[in-house]
């Protein structure tokens, strides 16, 4: 395991910026934190430290897991919704980044445009965590990896199938999956492919890490032999005006037991939530193969681990 101080001062804007060793280290720390929390062990490594959390979009899991996790570690997390601060009305992102860095040890933000989280990280003088942008959702994927490891005892060599939109969650799986040894089988409708720069990066990573990467428009092809089947909403935050068209365009993409007949016999289902029945029916979503609640719970331990690592604080 590498020393936690090696990530000190880094920002988590995308998992592209993190090596296989760093991702493994974050997961190891998250596992230790989960053990401590489950055992009722009191640990306060963030005593006297604060995080500012800017949310321009809604959130249940990210907000609550972060606020709770930071409080559990003795720190203070401050929720700043769109109407709470001057940002976007009376003050620029640059000035907001500088000012918040003077009060807080670390910042976390959920913006629409990915360029905004990049700017925040560039202008802030403290570490920044991306709590979802239109392009990436790195915290989610750390929790997903922890959940997969809990279920299968490993990540290396497993096959993950994605059936759905070429969105922020998929992008994060694509940039980080090959690094931890996951083979990826991705089905998206023709007009909803992942971004080409992400595809190029994922292809390079797959070659480098000796994993496979399949891109198709056929959900049945994608799920064949898969250990983990993942989907997400067809209508991400900010896309509400496209909802009608998307629901038509995603016809045939709803995950059902029938679709999963050719998956690995030990398959598990994952979804970052919030979930709509469009993308997965109740039979799969509420089945004993679905690990969505563990996945949601692991959001807390992974954000705690990420925060400590970027601050260079040990448990
Ligand atoms: N999965 C996730 O990020 O959920 P929230 O939008 O509720 O934070
Ligand atoms: N793709 C979804 C994820 C929500 C956690 C969105 O961006 O709305």
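Sequence proposed for the structure above (315 residues):
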């Amino acid at each position: 395991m590498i020393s936690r101080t090696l990530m000190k001062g880094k920002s988590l804007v995308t998992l592209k910026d993190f090596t296989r060793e760093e991702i493994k280290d974050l997961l190891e720390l998250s596992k230790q934190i989960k053990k401590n929390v489950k055992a009722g062990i009191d640990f306060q490594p963030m005593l006297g430290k604060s995080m500012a959390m800017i949310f321009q979009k809604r959130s249940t899991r990210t907000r609550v897991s972060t606020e709770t996790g930071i409080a559990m570690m003795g720190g203070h997390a401050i929720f700043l919704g769109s109407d709470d601060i001057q940002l976007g009305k009376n003050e620029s992102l640059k000035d907001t980044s500088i000012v918040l860095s003077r009060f807080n040890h670390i910042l976390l933000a959920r913006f629409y445009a990915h360029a905004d989280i990049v700017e925040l990280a560039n202008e802030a003088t403290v570490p920044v965590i991306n709590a979802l942008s239109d392009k990436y959702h790195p915290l989610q994927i750390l929790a997903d990896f922890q959940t997969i490891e809990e279920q299968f005892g490993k990540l290396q060599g497993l096959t993950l199938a994605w059936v759905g939109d070429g969105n922020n969650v998929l992008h994060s799986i694509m940039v980080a999956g090959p690094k931890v040894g996951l083979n990826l089988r991705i089905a998206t409708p023709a007009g909803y492919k992942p971004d080409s720069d992400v595809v190029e990066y994922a292809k390079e990573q797959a070659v480098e890490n000796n994993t496979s990467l399949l891109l198709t428009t056929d959900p049945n092809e994608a799920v064949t032999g898969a250990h983990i089947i993942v989907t997400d909403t067809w209508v991400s935050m900010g896309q509400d005006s496209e909802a009608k068209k998307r629901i038509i365009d995603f016809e045939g993409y709803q995950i059902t037991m029938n679709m999963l007949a050719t998956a690995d016999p030990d398959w598990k289902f994952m979804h970052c939530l919030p979930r709509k029945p469009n993308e997965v029916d109740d039979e799969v979503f509420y089945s004993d193969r679905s690990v969505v609640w563990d996945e949601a719970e692991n959001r807390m331990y992974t954000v705690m681990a990420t925060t400590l690592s970027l601050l260079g604080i040990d448990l």
